[in-house]
Amino acid sequence: MYRIAVCDDDENFLKDITQDITAYFEKEGVYHKCVEYKSGLALLADIEDKKLYDIYILDIEMPVYSGIDITKEIIQYDPTPFIIFVTSHLKYAVDSYNYNIFRFIPKSELKGRLTLALRAAFSKLDEQKENYYFISNNRRFEKISYKDILYIYKDGKNSVFVLLEQEIKVRKTLEMVYRELGTGDFIFIDRCTIVNIQLIKKIDCKAAKIKMKNGKEIDVARIRIQELMKELNSYWGKHI
Fold first, then answer.
1. Residue of higher predicted confidence among 1 and 41
2. Which spans in 30-137 are helix H?
């Protein structure tokens, strides 16, 4: 399911653009959820609560918090968001380019450009899905880049993602997470731990430890050391 946030203080425009988005997805047969925000403050509250979206369609000019203000906050939680700015005044376009905005659409040309922008955005999102793990429930939507995942360990009925700068717990078994990752870049080093092969710096066979690129050391069962070395050699033989 694709999630789209639309934020505009003009309620009539907000209703019209949401209808256009819904019509596009129904025509394409794509499952989606479009959420309306009548103010930047409301959207910022959800962003700070880690309720993130695949695409943000923002009016640049809004009282209190502008589209640019919202963008600054979004990139604190998602450094590569898909943001589409809409406005009645082209003079704001120059400022918006500083934030790597995906598309800029004048409101007067929305009907013609919105479909093209959505099609291009979802084409890029489909490419990205191969390199991200998505956490989605009623309270949050978050995407984690594979390159940021050091390892994942079992914590009761949960799985804990250890990232470069934080840990994230999800209510899923480790086996389920492994299947959802769907890539050979991750391997089990024991029944309770999955590691990212690309972030392994070295294996200390004598100490039975794996050293990750951030300096973190992970214990590994001695009976797994030789098998693990073979798996790593096989992986790097295919990727070098």
1. 41
2. 40-48, 67-77, 93-96, 110-128
